[in-house]
Every structure is written in structure tokens, then in C-alpha cells.
Amino acid sequence: MGNNTPQDIEGFHDCEACDVKHPATSWCLDCDYDMCTTATRFHSRNKASRDHKVVFLEQLAVSVFCTEHKEQFRLFDEECNHMVCRSCVTLTHENHSLLSLAEVGLKYKQEMEALVTQASAQAEVIKDAENRVLNASSDMEKAYKEQRAKIQSVFKKLHDAVTTREQDLINELEMLHSKKAAILTEQRALLRNCQDCIEATVKGVKSTIQSSDNANLLYVRSTIESILEAATKNQYLVLEPEAQFVPELNRCEKRRLQRVVGALNNVGVVMDRSTCAVTTTAAGSGLEQANPGEVASFTIIARDAQRLSRAVGGDTFVVELKNKSDELEDKVRADVQDKGYGKYLVTYTIPRSAKRVDYTLSVRLRGAHIQGSPFTVHMASSLPCKTNKVLSDVAGKITQHS
Q1: Cα distances (angstroms) measured from residue 278 to each of 183, 305, 376
Q2: Residue 268 burial by Cβ neighbours in a 10 Å radius (0-12, 13-18, 19+)
């Protein structure tokens, strides 16, 4: 449609102010008729019509038409929030707030450009957040590997110490076993020798008894009895085992091992030492009251999931202070100073011109509120208490006199 002239396009008309059929180039909204260039110039100079609202047709979107009246859209109705053609204005939109398409296009273009700028800024914020999450993931992986290596190192030393002690005890047990076994082996050999000797003596005596006559038997009787008595009454012979082997750790050693095992069960508790929003607290007068124009402050005490105070800084706390009165939202900037040992000093100043309403104070860590957040901050009077009392007394006297 780039080379089409207005009269070639549906929706354009001839000039209604001239007798000659000139193509219309503008439209008077007050008179409701199309005009050519000459008529438009005369219309704008005429005292009666110089203040009329004239819309140039070249500013209209010639590619969009009213489906109801088959005419080109010429204006935008702000009350109904849609485009209207000439017939729409005459029939149903005559007294509405109307703007030319060029005016409304510029208006909404600026609004959309502002939204685009806002969205682009938000995209940058999200990108920065993603980078922080990426860095946090990298730091977490590094910390995980370091702590894993420490745990393995500690328990390797414990394992080596336990293994060494185990081998020492086994060596002591083997030495004791060898000593006892040698004693019993020696005793057994002695008993075997004595047994063999007695059996040989008994055998010889039996042979002598059977082969000797009475005279010879009586002759050797005393000798045989002495030999048998000596064999059966060996006072140096130990018949009970000379060694017993019942190895056992003594009671003290048992208790020590039990304590060691119990201690091992509690060695190296793995815990999350990062700051936890739910257990983190805040303290200070700035959480409850603030004087307009004066610096208010409070302190954030970072704690971990076990409610233990953190000894290092590095956390990013987001502090918001705002009030909503009617449709107006006021925000106050807060400064967070990292003290480096798990505490953060927060300061803010409510302007003297601020409305005397309560403020909502939010303290968040990674999007989560800390303990007690959001807080309610009451606005204190900017006048000293004594001055307030004087004014109150004066107001009371005026009321009495009246």
C-alpha cells in the first residue's frame, strides 16, 4: 500500500467544504467533515473555526478499518479504550475524550518504551542474580571438596592409629601365646618321658616275676619294690598343666576402648554453618521508632541453622522501608554496613517531609525474611517531648476559653 493515494484507499473521502471534488487531507472533529488542503487553511484562519480540532488524515493508520462501518479508524477513545472511525464518533462516541492516532501512538509508544527500559533493567538484575547463584554454587562445590578432603585426612590418621594399636595388641597376644605354648610343650614332653620310664619298669618287673622262682623272687623283692615305689612317687612331677591361656583385655582397657568408640561416633559433626534467615535476629531502636530527619539504626545478628552466631560476614541483606498511604508509596533508602564478624549495622533516615504514618521495615536474606520481619516502625514527632507538652497545655487552655 506504499504508493496508494488517499482516494485509492477505502475510508478516504473528497473534500466536503468545497464544490470541487478535491481529495480530503484533514478532518475537523468539531464540524465533522473532511477538508482538502485549501479548505483546511481557510478553516484554521476563520475566526469561528480557528479553535476547532483538526486531524490530518496522513497521520491515520490506513491499513486498519472499522469492521462495523467499513471506514478507516481516525481517533482513539480513551474512555472506551479502542479506536473509532468517523461514523463511530458521530453515533456513539461524540462526547468522549478523543485523541488522534498520532497523539495516542506517541503516548503509548513512550509508555511501552519505558516498560521496555524497565524490563531490560530487570533482565540485568536477574542476570546479576544468576551470576551470584553461579558463584555461590562454585564456592559451595569448593567448600564441599575441601571439607571432604579434611574428613578423609582426619579419619585416615584415626584409621592408621587404630590399625597400629590393633597390630600391637595382636603382637602381644602372639608373644603370650608362644610363651604359654612352650611351657605346655615342655611339660608334655617330661610327662611322656616319665610315662615311658614307668611303663618300661613295669614291663621289666612283670617279666622278672614270671621268669624267677620263689627263691630268686624273694632275693630281688626289695629292689623291685624300691624301683616301683620310686616310679609311682615322683614328687617333682607336675601332673596339672603348668600354664593356662585365657587372653582377655583388662577392664581398664575395655573402658578406654569403649570411650574411644563412643568418641569416634561423635567425631566431626557435619553441619551447615551458612547464615540462616529464619534464625537470624535483629536488635535496636530503629526497628520500632524513627524521628523524621534523624538517623535511625539497628543491628542484624547473623546466625546459622543451629542458632549459633556467625563469626564472619559476607552476607547480602536486603532492607526495605516503605509506607503506603492512599495510592502513594514512599520508600526510604537503608544502608547496610558489614562489620565482618557476623553483625551488620543498618542505618536509615526518614525525610522530615514524610507523612506521619507507620512504616513497614523488611529485612530479607536470599528472599526470605529474618526472624521478626517485617517490622512496624512508628513515626515519632520531630518536636521534643517538652515542646509537645507545652503545645498540648496551650491547646487545652484555648479549648476552655472557647
Answers
A1: 72, 8, 18
A2: exposed
Please tell me the number of Cα atoms within 13 Å of 400 on its side-chain side: 6
Cell of 293: 530527619
**DSSP secondary-structure letter at 273?**
-
Residue with cell string 585426612: 153
Where do we find the cell 553461579?
134
| Encoded amino acid at 246, one letter | V
**Span 154-205, pLDDT tens digits:** 889 888 988 888 888 888 889 889 998 998 999 899 888 888 888 888 888 8
Residue whose grid cell is 501512538: 105
- Tens-digit pLDDT profile for residues 52-66: 888 777 665 555 667
Q: Which of 206, 199, 205 has the alpha carbon at shortest distance from 224?
A: 205
Question: What's the sign of the alpha-carbon dihedral 153, 155, 156, 160?
Answer: positive
Question: Do residues 371 and 362 make contact, with C-beta atoms less than 8 angstroms apart?
Answer: no
Give the other-Cβ count within 10 Å of 289's Cβ. Answer: 12
pTM of the model: 0.45
> Which whole-number Å values give the CA distances from 87 to 14, 96, 105, 247, in the listed order?
16, 14, 21, 115
